[in-house]
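Batch job 17 of 40 flagged for manual review because the log was empty.
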Amino acid sequence: MPNSIQNYRLITGKDDSEFCSRITKALSEGYELYGSPTMTFNGEHVVVGQAVIKRPSQLV
């Protein structure tokens, strides 16, 4: 299956520069964004999530 997902991660955290850095790092490691981001408010701050995948041809 050439397009099967081999590596899936859901990155979550407070909506801040650290979260953005984690997404940027995943992209630089060969992950691709998968689906839409999600957001919620926990009463103190916005919490975000983004799924990323690395396809078999990108696995090292």
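Reviewer: the log was empty due to a logging misconfiguration, but the result itself is present. Helices lie at 17-28. Unflagging and moving on to job 18.
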